[in-house]
Write a structure and sequence with these properties.
The complex is a heterodimer of chains A (380) and B (643).
Chain A: H1 2-6, H2 23-33, H3 35-52, H4 54-57, E1 78-82, E2 88-102, E3 107-131, E4 135-144, H5 163-174, H6 177-199, H7 201-216, H8 219-229, H9 236-251, H10 253-266, H11 270-277, H12 282-293, H13 295-312, H14 330-336, H15 340-345, H16 348-375
Antiparallel strand pairs in A: 1-2, 2-3, 3-4
Chain B: H1 3-10, H2 34-41, H3 48-51, E1 57-58, E2 71-77, H4 83-90, E3 95-97, E4 104-106, E5 109-114, E6 120-125, H5 139-150, E7 163-164, E8 167-168, E9 170-175, E10 178-182, H6 190-195, H7 207-210, H8 221-227, H9 234-241, H10 248-251, E11 262-264, E12 273-278, E13 284-285, E14 297-303, H11 306-314, E15 320-321, H12 331-336, H13 338-341, E16 343-350, E17 354-360, H14 367-373, H15 376-385, H16 388-395, E18 401-402, H17 416-420, H18 427-436, E19 457-463, H19 470-483, E20 487-493, H20 495-503, E21 509-514, H21 539-546, H22 556-569, H23 574-591, E22 595-599, E23 603-608, E24 611-612, E25 618-620, E26 635-636
Parallel strand pairs in B: 1-13, 2-14, 16-25, 19-20, 19-21
Antiparallel strand pairs in B: 3-4, 5-6, 6-10, 7-8, 9-10, 11-12, 12-14, 15-23, 16-23, 17-21, 17-22, 18-22, 24-26
Helix pairs in contact in B: 15-18, 22-23
């Protein structure tokens, strides 16, 4: 951290020199005072840890179907269990369920099997997986002690798959690939918008006409062309990644316009003139003085783009280039839940991934908010 | 087979027009709907006797004589949902299937006769029958259709019903009410085909209306072309005004007179509600002499998606409907809301030869894949790798039976072996079969390698159609395949894109259903031999089958199928036809050309509690466009909708 470098060397017995903090350290200090933002930072980190070690945290295999577990409602964890001799004993468990089928409606319902429980524990053995893609493992953070038992903490879907595990595994895609698109848009938008606004003249003219050209391309025919051009043999995830990249290649235009406007007004400011007279190169002026002065705007538009991206995951599915089952992401989970049967029979299918998205988006928003407040030099 | 009796009667020859309506209507006092009686009294309509043919068709009563009145409410999706209207009002053909789909009966034609060699069919029309605008319907209208049909500009591709090896059928007008269809070779299926959906062509071309769009009838056609912004020449203009009935175009031209019980008054897609009003010139009566239809009008509210239809059903806003909502997964919620929506259920005999079929492209452009999928043992291995009962339990909630692509138990040509062979779930046998055909090398991930040393991968196209949850099925199948070392990649797509890719023949495999489960095996054996444009498991052989100079010449075992089916089409003898069909299916199912998974026992529809006279169970199929022609006698008890 730059703050450390600039601290004067401490000498024994010398009077304590006032601590000089660099801009990053100042930011961090201010950020930590923003409690919600600080908590959100940890939450976001937690979500990413969850994504990184998804199979370790998922109690069941996310694609394991179970014909005796269709639409099981969320099961609650219980702490005490009455043993056969009547004494109460601490044992994390859920009640064992028995499926009943109503022959007239083909509806499944579940009764508690009295006296039978499924004991739960930490670091239990379960389905085999590869941690981080290469370490073979079969231990899971939390789940049923007997690997043959199945529990549904957040309920199960129409094929008897565990929703909690699916949400955890879905985190991987929703919090990674989707964000790549946002990042690419940001990078292109800020650079081209910056160049356009800073230099003006013919460069500005060229870039603005390019933006107008891109904006005039009708999107649906473009997607259809893409759908036709992408080979069928490609795995869906690669298709989605490429499409996301292409979408962001033309999605940067509005941000670039905003950045350009900001640059046009900033470049006449005294502190920019001063920086230039100090001999800084154009690039340094942009990077060190201009971009930070409107980072708040960038962060806000960034965090707002994330939920849109998650909801847009499935929007191109009708052309075969969006995310679709069997890929698991928050977007596909939500899509599967968007029907009346689900809302009436299995509302947890909608509530669980929905709350997860709300939590993640709020956390990112608060985090962005805190970063902006901390980064904004005018916010005193 | 029940149909046989009828056939023998028909074969007695042209002389007697063996089938005539048993009941003559002379001396009857016809009754009409109050709303029409008012119009007659006001002088807006001619009296009933002048509007109906001298011998109206007497519809056999399903339950009871009905009450006039009420609006039958349904819902329709935007875009390509025209079958929603078509199947409700449009299936009024020269001949019709009986309500239980067992025999062909007179409809627009009051009788017909067939020559002994099954080449010549003569239809006798009803004297005095009229189009919905009051103009007479005669043999000239059918001849007008024939003129359009022969015109290469207007009908470049002709429907196979009306073509044989010698070219288009020859249609001749004998007199004003008699028309003859003559084929160059025996066509034993013609009457059956005319009772199925695509038999509609000859009876939807009102000459008095459509002839104005043809230059040979209208000297001043340029004025009409100029007035129509969507047409630049008379061919476009005519196609716009005279679109085929199974396309949206037909339902977007409300000016075109029809012979249907209700006439649409606005264009499908032009507003959020399509309305069809009673046709005052309709030519059917009930057994008491009341002119049909009973119900005043039918409305279709246009909605975004099937979920909205479900909600409307809960609220009692759907009177009679199976389309889009009658799926196993909706049964529980529909049962829950039965009291609120005041509806009950009726059976829908939607029985294909199989509900979910894995279809490999047997004309795969990739030579390695082509060789493997054309190996019988490979297909057998895949068939044994699939746990059909689990698919049924999970995806179809236990409804249906494991089975191959073959006629259903209720079919006249059912054979248990065809359905059950190679359906046991036996991964060990599957593994052994795959090892034995040379797919015995595996890569690090446990997938089998092809002969070229690369992983053997087949990409399955899947679309979420018909409510059969194909994506779910395919996900399970890919899992079973993985367990025996086969890499089945699943690519979801929408229906039209899938059809586009598959019709070009570029796909490896896909999942779909297939007709031919019941009596339609005679006319729709598309999964027993490569035939037709709607099934894509061997598109190049199918092209060869239509025209031997195109496509790819199939091997002997496939040519034998074409030969067997010729035995069905060219014979007029039902016994010989049945034997030929059984021979075809025996050969086809033995080769496991497609891998069927689930045979369904039908679906259901909902009907409001005071609706009467609907067909239950209602047979339906890809070609059998029901519930019409039986909708005209549906009625509301009390003459009005339940509140």
């Amino acid at each position: 951290m730059t703050a450390v470098d600039q601290n004067p060397v401490e000498i024994a017995d010398a009077p304590t020199a006032p601590v000089l903090l660099g801009p990053w350290a100042l930011m961090w200090r201010k950020f930590k005072r923003h409690r919600i933002a600080y908590a959100s930072l940890w939450l976001v980190l937690f979500i990413y840890v969850l994504a990184l070690f998804a199979n370790f945290f998922a109690p069941e295999a996310h694609d394991e179907t179970n014909r005796r577990g269709i639409f099981v409602p969320p099961q609650t964890i219980q702490f005490f269990h009455e043993t056969e001799d009547g004494s109460r004993q601490f044992q994390l468990h859920v009640d064992a369920l028995k499926m009943k089928v109503d022959q007239a409606t083909m509806r499944r319902s579940y009764d508690v099997q009295p006296g039978k429980i499924i004991p739960l524990g930490f670091f239990v053995k379960g389905h085999a997986y590869e941690l981080l893609g290469f370490i073979k493992a079969d231990r899971h953070f939390f789940g049923p002690k007997d690997p043959d038992d199945v529990v549904y903490f957040l309920g199960s879907d129409r094929l008897g798959r565990d929703i909690l595990s699916r949400i955890i595994v879905g985190t991987q895609i929703s919090m990674s690939i989707g964000l790549v698109g946002v990042a690419v848009s940001l990078l292109i938008g800020v650079s081209l918008g910056g160049i356009s606004g800073y230099y003006g003249g013919w460069i500005d003219n060229v870039i603005q006409r390019l933006i107008e050209f891109l904006r005039s391309i009708p999107t649906i025919p473009l997607w259809m062309g893409l759908a036709a051009a992408i080979p069928l043999g490609w795995p869906p995830l690669r298709t989605y990644f490429i499409v996301t990249l292409i979408v962001s290649m033309i999605g940067w235009t509005s941000l670039a316009r905003e950045v350009r406007g900001k640059f046009l007004s900033l470049r006449k400011e005294d502190f920019i003139t001063a920086a230039r007279l100090d001999g800084l190169s154009d690039w340094e002026v942009i990077r060190k003085h201009m971009v930070p002065s409107f980072s708040s705007h960038i962060i806000a538009s960034l965090t707002l783009a994330v939920p849109l991206m998650i909801l847009a995951e499935t929007s191109l599915s009708f052309l075969g280039i969006g995310l679709q089952p069997p890929i698991v992401s928050w977007g596909t989970l939500l899509k599967e839940a968007q029907n009346i049967r689900t809302i009436i029979e299995a509302p947890w299918l909608l509530i669980a991934p929905g709350s997860m998205i709300v939590i993640a988006v709020l956390a990112l928003n608060f985090l962005g908010d805190g970063l902006r407040d901390a980064a904004d030099p005018h916010a005193h | 087979m029940i149909r046989r009796g009828k056939y023998n009667a028909l074969r007695s020859g042209i002389a007697g027009f063996a089938l005539t309506v048993a009941m003559t209507t002379q001396g009857w006092a016809f009754e009409e709907a109050p709303m029409l009686a008012e119009k007659v009294a006001a002088g807006d309509l001619p009296p009933l006797e002048e509007r109906m043919p001298s011998e109206p068709m007497v519809m056999e009563t399903l339950d009871s004589i009905g009450d006039y009145g009420g609006t039958l409410r349904r819902a329709i999706l935007g875009g390509g949902d025209q079958h929603n209207i078509l199947r409700q009002v449009g299936t009024e053909l020269l001949v019709r299937w009986s309500p239980d789909w067992s025999e062909v009966k007179p409809n627009i034609a009051e009788s017909w006769a067939v020559s002994d060699d099954a080449t010549t069919y003569t239809f006798k029309l009803r004297d005095g029958m009229r189009w919905s605008d009051g103009a007479p319907f005669t043999a000239d209208d059918i001849m007008f259709w024939y003129e359009v049909f022969l015109d290469e500009k207007l009908t470049p591709s002709k429907h196979p019903n009306y073509v044989d090896a010698g070219g288009p059928v020859q249609v001749t007008k004998i007199d004003d009410t008699t028309v003859e269809f003559k084929f160059s070779e025996p066509n034993g299926l013609f009457i059956l085909n005319m009772a199925y959906g695509f038999g509609y062509y000859p009876v939807v071309y009102p000459k008095h209306y459509l002839s104005q769009f043809l230059p040979q009838y209208n000297d001043d056609i340029q004025a009409l072309i100029d007035a129509e912004p969507a047409a630049s020449d008379w061919v476009q203009l005519f196609n716009l005004k005279a679109g085929p009935m199974h396309t949206p175009l037909f339902w977007q031209n409300p000016d075109r007179p029809t012979l249907h019980p209700w006439k649409t008054t606005n264009a499908y897609g032009s507003s959020d509600r399509v309305v069809a009003e009673r046709n005052p010139y309709f030519w059917k009566v009930d057994e008491a002499g009341n002119q049909l239809p009973y119900v005043d009008r039918i409305t279709w509210d246009q909605v975004e998606d099937p979920e909205t239809i479900l909600l409307k059903a809960f609220n009692g806003e759907i009177d009679y409907m199976a389309r889009h909502i009658g799926r196993p997964s909706n049964l529980a919620v529909l049962t829950d809301n039965q009291d609120r929506g005041k509806y009950g259920f009726f059976g829908v005999g939607d029985i294909p030869s199989n509900q979910s079929i894995l279809m490999f492209n047997l004309n795969n452009p990739d030579p390695i894949k082509n060789k493997i999928v054309n190996t019988f043992e490979f297909r057998k291995a895949v068939s044994h790798a699939v746990d059909r009962q689990e698919i049924i339990d999970l995806v179809y909630l236990g409804a249906g039976k494991p089975g191959q692509t073959a006629p259903h138990e209720r079919s006249p040509v059912y054979n248990e072996t065809w359905v059950t062979q190679h359906t046991e779930f036996d991964p060990d046998m599957s593994n052994k079969l795959l090892d034995d055909i040379g797919l015995d090398q595996k890569d690090g991930d446990g997938y089998r390698l092809g002969p070229d040393g690369n992983r053997f991968t087949l990409v399955f196209l899947v679309a979420d159609v018909f409510g059969f949850q194909y994506p779910d099925v395919m996900e399970l199948v890919a899992d079973y395949a993985k367990d025996v070392g086969l890499d089945f990649q699943v690519r979801a797509s929408d229906r039209s894109r899938l059809q586009e890719i598959a019709s070009a023949g570029d796909h490896d495999a896909y999942i779909w259903n297939c007709g031919g489960g019941l009596a339609d095996a005679y006319t729709n054996p598309d999964c027993y031999l490569p035939r037709g444009q709607a099934v894509y498991w061997a598109p190049k052989w199918a092209a060869w089958g239509v025209d031997n100079s195109t496509g790819v010449e199939p091997p002997e075992n496939i040519k034998a199928l074409f030969e067997a089916y010729r035995g069905v089409t060219t014979s007029a003898d039902p016994v010989a036809q049945e034997a030929a069909l059984k021979d075809l299916i025996e050969q086809a199912t033995g080769q496991l050309l497609t891998i069927g998974m689930v045979q369904s026992d039908g679906a259901y529809g909902i009907v409001r509690n005071n609706v009467r006279n609907y067909v239950d169970p209602m047979p339906i199929a890809g070609q059998l466009w029901t519930p019409a022609p039986y909708t005209a006698q549906v009625y509301f008890e009390g003459g009005t909708n339940l509140p």
